[in-house]
Design goal:
mainly alpha
């Protein structure tokens, strides 16, 4: 566990749950491992299908990441709104 960054004057320190949420690490892997795709042989239909599948998987993961970013942004905006009312 890392030490939390120092709190600046007037800043509200994060709760332990918020701190743990920030520390979550997401690992993104590929379905084919560390295989080098730049073979000397020309592309085949099979290799093209593999690449298309990997691209589709990456696009799906990117959409999930975008959704999570939007959720965090909304939470931050809500926190800012609440703090602005205090």
């Amino acid at each position: 566990t890392r030490d939390p960054p120092p709190v600046e004057e007037g800043e509200i320190p994060p709760t332990q749950a918020e701190q743990e949420e920030e520390e979550d690490v997401v690992e993104i892997g590929t379905t084919t491992g560390d295989r080098d795709v730049r073979d000397r042989d020309p592309f085949t239909s099979e290799s093209a299908q593999i690449l298309i599948g990997e691209i589709m998987g990456c696009n799906f993961e990117l959409e999930n990441i975008k959704t999570k970013i939007n959720d965090v942004s909304k939470k931050n905006n809500n926190i800012i709104d609440v703090l602005g009312r205090i």
